[in-house]
Amino acid sequence: MLPTSRTNRLGWLRILLLLGCWAVLGLREARAAGDEVLVIYNSRLPDSEAVARHYARRRAVPDSQLLGLPLPEKGSLSRAEYVSGIQEPVRRHLLSRGLAEWVAEPRPRGSGRPGPAGDRVRLTRSSIRYLLLCHGVPWYIPQDPSMRSSTNGIPPHLQRNDASVDDELALLPRLGFDDPIGVAPNPVVGATNGARLHPTNGVFLVTRLDGPTPEIARGLVDKALEAEARGLWGHAYIDLRAITNGPYRWGDWMITNAATAAKRLGFETFVDHQPATLGVGYSLSQVALYVGWYDSGVTGPFYRANVEFMPGAFAYHLHSFSAANLRSSSENWVGPLLARGVTATLGCVAEPYLEFTPNPAMLLERLGYVGMTYGEASTAARPVLSWQTVVVGDPLYRPFGRPLNEYGQSLDAADDPATAYALVRNANLQLMAGRPADAVRDQLEGQRWATRHAVVAEKIGRLYWSGIRVRKALEWYELALSLTNATPMQRRRLLSDSVEAHRVIAQPAEAYRCLEQLIVGSPPDVDVQELRIRQLQFARELRDPEKVAAISNEVRRLNRNP
Known about the structure:
Distance between the termini: 31 Å
Number of strands: 16
Helix content: 25-40%
Structural class: alpha/beta
Largest sheet: 6 strands, mixed
């Protein structure tokens, strides 16, 4: 990624916070429906049509709003193929079905951005807001050096006509107004009113159901619907690079604000400030939100075949070529994240330059505070169009469509274990509103889920830890570890936190024991050398020659065979 050259149940009744008010305000907007979606698939690929029809059934999209196009069976197509094979057929379909209307406008000479020959056409009416591209539809339009256009005012490094299919299609309401050479400003960037995100204001909301396999693509709507029904639960993980100045500071600034957005939504938020990306042994558990940067391909805990993504999870890794190959489960980021269970993600097909990448904080704020759909929020979060972004996921997905207290009450009444996550989010929102931590902790301890779910027990332990009551924190960590609903990665974090707690209160034998459990339970690709070195320190504190000798030998072996 390059910078541009210019450098207890009563608790549910206590959540009348500002954030809650924002969520309720979001619900006042018109609910998105399947009749606002045009579903586009590759008619040459039966799997592509199957994805389209599955989505149409789940979201009640009328048959007249399924459009099959005979497209290349690969990820890219030329500019000419895009115009003749996608752009014009989509426009003709919308016109012929009475779904939209364009009017021609003469092009003023010598004014505005240059465009293709002929009159400009502006969309004046549309019952379609969303365009959904299905697995099998190409995603990239490569650079065409034969294309010529005026480049006045366009910096040399932006004089390119390569783009994502999705970003070009978004500008279909303004055909002829925008030149395919260089970027086009997004006319609705930063919008907070969902009604403004309409084609008559110049932009279609374009996402796609895609991924390494048709089954993955088809499942995106199923996971979105599950999260809408039961809520989006889990934790948020934010991976910064500790950049404080220079042209790359913009990336850390956006991601720092994404962390703030996650916290203000009540998610238990873990922020890593180290320059390197998360290590393979990082305790990435029960993931609802992830935002990070800046590896070229999937690394660290995401490289494992099993990642604890929750239904409805959103994940975004900022990198220039994160979406270069949507069909790979190992290359770049978008494909692998989808293969490992994420529900919504986005990325770039080619170098976008840092300032022109989607703003993840803006996206999360509009999803969470305003209650927008994923299609709306992802469009409002993009500074430019006619560029390099693809957005993968159900455009109608609305993960925060109901207030938190409604979700919590219905889950608790059904004795649903997901109640635990709602309780933790509620606790975090109360803390942000200024309620004393002791009062929030005592309220959590009074919940029946405190001793039934590891997520609540861990949160209580963390609250005791922050209050410097280490022994009480350890009691709750041990309780959480004893519960069968603690996930493997959560257990890893609990054991790591327990080691530190035992160290603080001078219990080297217990710290040694927790480290042994941590090492034995580590995934096979985790380097345990650092853990063994820490264990050796505790063995020396115990003055146990046998343990010291055994661990020393193990450290030497690991040094010889890293």
